[in-house]
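Bench log, entry 3. Co-assembly request; chain sequences pasted below exactly as received.
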Amino acid sequence: MATMNMIQALNSAHRVAMERDPDVIVYGEDAGYFGGVFRVTEGLQKQFGKTRAFDAPISEGGIVATAVGMAAYGLKPVIEIQFADYIYPGYDQIVSEVAKIRYRTAGEWGMPMVIRSPYGGGIFGGQTHSQSPESLFTHIAGLKTVIPSSPYDAKGLLIAAIEDPDPVIFFEPKRIYNGPFDGHHDKPVKPWAKHPASEVPDGHYTIPIGKAAVVREGADLTVLAYGTMVHVALAAVEENGIDAEVIDLRSLVPLDIETIEESVKKTGRCLVVHEAPRNTGFGAELVAEVQERCFYHLEAPVERVTGWDTPYPHAYEWAYFPGPKRLKKALEKVMAD
Amino acid sequence: MADKTAMKPNRPELKLHVPEPRFRPGDTPDFSDLDIPAAGSAPKPDIGVSAAETEPLTKGLVRVLDDNGKAVGPWDPKLDADTLRKILRDMVLQRIFDDRMYRAQRQGKTSFYMKGTGEEAIAITTATALDREDMNFPTYRQQGLLIARGYPLFEMMCQIYSNKGDKLNGRQLPIMYSSKEHGFFTISGNLGTQFPQAVGWAMASAIKGDSRIAVGWIGDGATAEGDFHSGMTFAAVYNAPAVLCIVNNQWAISSFSGIAGAEKATFAQRAVGYGLPGLRVDGNDALAVYAAVRWAADRARSNLGSTLIEFFTYRAEGHSTSDDPTGYRPAGEAKAWPLGDPIERLKQHLLLLGEWDEERHEAMRAECDAEVRAAQKEAEKLGVLPEQGKDNIESMFDDVYADVPWNLAEQRAQAVSEGGA
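Structure output for the full assembly:
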């Protein structure tokens, strides 16, 4: 057991997977010798050699397409898209190819691969380093979409994703790579070392994809969150003195509907939070599922706290980000009725 | 309204060029000024040649069969008569198959079909020149790969009819075949996607120290996609053991090759800029196709990397059953095409060698015809498209993932209870 931040935990996941399976291949822009701009793949080339961990041209379409060919051959590519904001040149390959190949070949060819990418805001990255495009992938049949929120989960989920027979979009909340973020951007950054989820086993373990985590038990309200917003939501319910149950979805597809349904039926109230824009965001799907399954248990309308329906604005980051103020207001509203 | 500048009145007005094919419906096509180098005139370099040295080969045309059907020049692959007869038979078989399936579509037995008329030599001869275990990432007009590798016509037809025998369970548009066993990757309707995928497969083969190579296919029109560029880039960067084939059949549905950039440079010329050797090959000349693919495959197998081959040919029929080419090109263009018919040309060669005669040709043709008819009869016993999609609705939810998740299980239960439309 070691204390790791999320980057170290993800790096450890790569090492464990690559040691166990010689077919695991890692590549991406700056991901080889240098180890990636966030250093997640640091040292892999040195340990596993240049043909298993290497730099790719600045061509997300080419990175995904070649991973399709490698998976067709029988390898397990784990590719890095440097920022989720850069994934769109690879979108046709992901949507039309990666997601569909098992189906259109009636199972003759699976597409086991992991497409990793840092996503989300809170780092003053402007509109091309801050986006949360998860709903563009959760909408696509054939893809799984996973988002960890702690070092422990990040490692266990990434190993599970690499071992999964199907393609997994693995979005890493870059705001919490180095420490949990409670939404108070004006306060000093907390390191992971003080958080229990920074205790990470050195060896192999997995966290099943499709299983949510109840990160705070409570009786009065269910908060559904993932990624950075898990920590923002946890802080907000504490600060506002609400006995909320906070559920970290961890996997958007497949979704752990049982845990959600059980919790909302218990609490009778639900708040959905995400960084991504509101319109047709993943929260819309969550709200729909909750009202379909729990309508007669609900004491109040289900609320959403999200990013605005604008591009991610650089200087206005903290007016855009769904932080403590917006959460407080929503918590009060959903608890009032 | 978009305003133009009033600031620099003495500068010439800029003009947009929109390429236009030379002949439109009503015109008499005349290709006599097309530069067709003589058969045998192209030099054959060593496989270790540099990309830059192949530049003349990217502008010329590798041709082996001359106008009389004689094999001439350094690219003559000197194939034995049995191999030549096999290629000829496969080409005849494909043409008959295409005609029968086109007719089946017109009879309402399926939704869609695409013929490869005039282009038969390209895929069939490529498959003949490759090892059986080499992997293809084809477009929709490489049915010849399957035919040459002995994929049962019956299986192809079941796929076309989406019937009970369809291995793809009625999920794919007709002719979008897939067969791992025959080294034929699942066809995508999104053009160009397979081209860089082939490079990825080749990279994987190199990563594992395998000896198999990959063949990527793309049409002239789809070379305009970013996937062509990424495929070429990755192929060059990683020295991928791949043969990269552009089938330039002059037409992308109704757009002539000039809309994809052919007015400015040949498609093969693009190779040199990426640092890959390129060849421009008479795609209607089976011997030239064989020799070029063999040369490129030898390069790939020798760790010399990828080669780009442009097969210069002509799409003699419509793009698909949904297309009517009389709306955009002269009816007589295919007949006027100066590189002739690949079947006639190889037949002429075999006749000249004394390895073939009209009687045998007719007998072979009749045999192929009977084979196609027999396969069709068997396939139709398992149903044609209009009868499909009613039974086994639950299968629609399989293979989205390796396991069926709860949401699909719920939807499957609903779909089954509805029992279809």
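The longest strand of chain B covers residues 242-248. Chain B has a mean pLDDT of 97.
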